[in-house]
């Protein structure tokens, strides 16, 4: 779309597309520069959470990298995340939370022996 429209036309066209998408509940929008984006969602609701997961799956398929969608290895978490690591070897949704908890449990287990 960007190659064919002047900047003002692009912003107007993006606004129109975004308005149509909002009426349908498609969950997508276009920036003023014509870039497609996921529409904002309410993360505090169950629907907002489901939409987030679906957007992750959709994004991974579009990028041709569905293997980057993973479930956190923590049995208490099981959060779905998109593995952005260059080596594609992340196992925790967050090293600061689930990764740190795993390291602490492993450390305590070694000390108990
Ligand atoms: Zn986790």
From TrEMBL:
UniProt cross-references to InterPro entries, sorted A to Z: ABATE, ABATE_dom_sf, Znf_CGNR
Entry superkingdom: Bacteria
Domain Zinc finger CGNR: 68-111
SUPFAM superfamilies given in the database record: Jann2411-like
Pfam families, A to Z: zf-CGNR
Residue ranges of the TM segments: none
Protein name per the record: CGNR zinc finger domain-containing protein
Organism in which the protein naturally occurs: Prauserella oleivorans
């Amino acid at each position: 779309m960007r190659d064919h429209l002047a900047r003002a036309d692009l912003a107007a066209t993006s606004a129109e597309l975004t308005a149509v998408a909002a009426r349908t509940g498609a969950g997508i929008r276009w920036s003023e520069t014509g870039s497609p984006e996921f529409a904002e969602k309410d993360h505090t609701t169950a629907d907002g959470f489901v939409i987030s997961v679906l957007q992750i799956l959709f994004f991974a398929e579009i990028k041709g990298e569905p293997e980057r969608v993973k479930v956190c290895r923590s049995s208490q978490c099981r959060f779905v995340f998109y593995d952005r690591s260059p080596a594609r070897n992340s196992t925790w949704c967050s090293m600061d939370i689930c990764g740190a908890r795993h390291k602490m449990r492993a450390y305590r287990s070694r000390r108990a022996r």
